[in-house]
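Hello forum,

I keep getting stuck at the same step: I have a sequence, I want structure tokens, and every attempt I make locally crashes halfway through. Rather than fight my setup again tonight, could one of you with a working pipeline run this one for me? It's a single chain of 490 residues.
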Amino acid sequence: MARTTDTAAFPVALPAALQLSRDGDRTLSEQLATHYAALIRQRLLPPGSRLPSVREGARRHGVSPHTLVATYDQLLAQGLVEAQRQRGFFVRERAAPSARGEAAAASPPDSPRVPVDASTLIRGMLGSGGRPGPGLGVLPPAWLDAPMLQAALRRAMAAGRDDEAQVAALHYGEPAGDPRLREALAQRLADIGVRAAPRQIMSTLGATQALDLVSRALLAPGDAVLVDEPGWSVEYARLTLLGMRLLPVPRGPDGPDLAVMEALAREHRPRLYVTVSVLHNPTGGMLSLATAHQLLQLAQTHDFHVIEDDTYAHLAPAHAPRLAALDGLKRCFHISGFSKILAPGWRVGFVAAPPDWIERLIDVKMLASLTTPALLEQAVAVCLEQGLLRRHAERVVTRLDAARGRSVRLAQDAGCEFVCPPQGLFGWVETGVDTEALAQRLLDRGWSTAPGSLFHARRQPGTKMRINFASAQDAAFWRDFEIERDAMRR
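Reply #2:
Ran it on my machine without issues. Output:
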């Protein structure tokens, strides 16, 4: 039996600013149940707390009493509350889970949670529940070109290629990837200074799989790996899951701190360095030419390879320094993909590798996924060959430049400072308050943000957060940001 008191109050009111969508796929009762469930699981509503009466709850949220009854029914079904006759609904005492995994499994996939680790960040990316995402990592859907993608698929199956397209659709593709795509990728890489023959290129299920396959081919559990910090939390989690020892290197506007890198390399003899040279996530920084040369010298001296993640290549200038261009694909593995520029669901990526590593990578790929979807790869090849992708990227960059200007002005007017010069898709913002606590407050107001703790190899509180310039240009977000930040300061 839950402990209750007649005077138990509802300690955390649902913020008035929370917007219930009447046009989405989820009913009002589902939206309210999800929010109450999150408050209970985060213990912002402790055991024994009495929820508002049906009449009071309906008035508080601007819904019918029937909607509140349906909300409480869902919470009862989840075992989060109990009904006491003639007294109301109370939060139940819940046994502590034996492991963090059990707690995660107990939460429905669409529960609004502050992203505190890589898995919750991914859940936020894959399904934000309709919440605006100033901290998410993708372009707004309205910026993408669905007709172009449809046309590319049609052209991939057009007259003159019908037999080949049918074979691609009905059979496994080539282990290295579709030959047409690899030819187009070789030309695309040449445009940014990376010389790679088609036989040095292997397609993958997005850039994330490319990162994983190269890591598996190069590394063994216990190996040391240099990583940028701040950096991409999913990469930290993935390498840790493989059993690697992470060696964080502070990342600045021009690249990694080379003195720290050299000291770590001398002490730990790393096998690999993973980095984003161009439009770094989350800072937006760009590797300088001088830093790139010195970095490659360190790799040669201390005998480690480099994975260069060029995921944001289509948003960056072609002349930006790439390590793979300077290195000639001797120690560097150059990785990129198309989900950021075409659509998140178009999971087509690739790796350009040193010639003596490509067969090993193909073997690892076959063990991981057999092959990759040839028809989708041919559609991407069409986008490259016919200039569709280039023109689309130019439109996106123009739109992003305008959005960045608005987002920067709003952020600065709200009292924020940018750690690195604003460029590309992301800004790394100093807020002056604990951004993990701030993220929960903003989530309660309907905004998904990315607190700075996500971007450290070892979780730690911080005052920075990542914003997406494309989706952070809403003045309403920055008004809510100021309200919650100022409340935290009081």
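The chain has 18 helices and 14 strands. If your local run keeps crashing, start a new thread with the error log.
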